[in-house]
Specification:
By secondary structure, the chain is of the alpha/beta class. The protein contains seven helices and nine strands; from the N terminus they run E-H-E-E-E-H-E-H-E-H-E-H-E-E-H-H. Helix 3 packs across helix 5. The protein starts with a strand and ends in a 7-residue tail after the last helix. The chain binds S-adenosyl-L-homocysteine.
Length: about 230
């Protein structure tokens, strides 16, 4: 069974976007992942097919209408759909690598991309939308956030990364940031590759990488070390 994402958006032509290239592109070609982009506007009614309206209580901007969005969600995700329903939103829980892994091990996701000021709260509640944020900044729409989430999920699907091992040492997978990397040439503008890496001593290399990982994490992301799972 492929990982099946259905994206609800006002801009379906933004998909698969960059996910059509490289690692994710090959996964989509092989059918390991499927992305359907569905236009929310197809579920609007009336002469003008309005999808948004002014906020109740006044204020700037427009809000995605509950009735239109609910119809779109119900059409692509009937009650028995086992896939989680996500709403890309700066108010959501910050996306983490462990949530990414969890999503990748499931059947897929229904992903709602907001626009304007956001979506009517009643659709979040009645359709059980899990709000997910990709960071503490505001985008103009949920599409780049959905593409980011899908990129992270698709790369950890079984068989997508060539080397089965290459995901496991990475930043966040161990609770730490990853160590620095080097490759040829041996000498670059007078800077040498750290000797230990060319020593052939795998134990020493592993110890060096661990130490670098810890030092980097302590310096840049001390918050990650507060997590109990990480040996300090
Ligand atoms: N008025 C809202 C921001 C709306 S931005 C607020 O202050 O919370 C328009 C849409 O872009 C949102 O509905 C959401 O789908 C998307 N978006 C913006 N920033 C995002 C972020 N950091 N993570 C995920 N989605 C985001």
């Amino acid at each position: 069974m492929p990982f099946h994402a259905t994206v609800l958006t006002l801009y379906p032509e933004m998909f698969p976007g960059h996910l059509g290239q490289s690692l994710a592109g090959r996964a989509l070609e092989r059918g390991d992942a499927v992305i359907d982009a569905v236009n929310i506007r197809d579920f609007a009614t009336g002469k003008h097919r309005n999808v948004d309206d002014t906020p109740a209580g006044g204020g700037a901007g427009m809000v995605l209408r509950a009735d239109v969005l609910a119809r779109a969600i119900d059409a692509v995700s009937p009650v028995e759909d086992a896939r989680p329903r996500l709403l890309m939103s700066p108010r959501g829980a910050p996306l983490t690598q462990s949530r990414v892994r969890e999503l990748a091990s499931g059947p897929g996701a229904v992903i709602v991309c907001g626009r304007f000021e956001g979506v009517d709260q009643r659709v979040i509640e009645t359709r059980n939308l899990e709000e997910v944020s990709i960071g503490d900044y505001v985008l103009s729409g949920g599409e780049p956030a959905a593409l980011t989430l899908l990129d992270a999920v698709i790369r950890v699907l079984p068989g997508v990364m060539g080397n089965a091992d290459s995901g496991t040492h990475e930043s966040f997978e161990t609770g730490l940031l990853e160590h620095p990397h080097y490759t040829r040439p041996q000498s670059f503008e007078g800077h040498e590759i750290p000797k230990v890496l060319t020593s052939g001593n795998h134990q020493a290399i592993e110890a060096w990488r661990q130490a670098q990982s810890r030092a980097l994490t302590r310096e840049r992301r001390p918050d990650l070390l507060e997590d109990d799972q990480v040996a300090k």
